[in-house]
Design goal:
globular; mainly alpha; 4 helices; single chain
Length: 111
């Protein structure tokens, strides 16, 4: 998508309500309309925002967030990455760099 503004940015509250119905979640139209979610607000919504507007089902939250990412052309987060591992490393790492017993080494700062 590049640096262009997604078309959804310009949607009205009614457009967003129609979109949520089109993706199969008609039961949430009211959540979006009562909270005045237009395109500018929609593109800022994440999994933490949806329960605040009345969407509690975790599977629905994941699917709606995925649909929003698709609208924006954003890749899904890599859930297999951890803070412990540097980017590009997958779990389980090789046993090199681990103390005996197989537990990860703790980070330390020598200041």
């Amino acid at each position: 998508m590049g640096n262009s503004v997604p078309q959804a940015f310009y949607w009205s509250v009614e457009d967003v309500a129609n979109w949520i119905e089109e993706i199969g979640y008609w039961q949430y139209k009211r959540c979006f309309t009562e909270n005045f979610v237009d395109g500018r607000k929609l593109i800022m919504i994440d999994a933490n925002s949806l329960p605040k507007i009345g969407i509690q089902d975790f599977d629905h939250i994941k699917t709606i967030c995925s649909a929003i990412r698709e609208l924006l052309g954003v890749e899904a987060p890599n859930s297999k990455r951890t803070i412990y591992l540097p980017p590009g490393t997958t779990w389980p790492p090789s046993s090199r760099g681990r103390p005996s017993g197989g537990t990860p080494m703790a980070w330390s700062s020598n200041r």
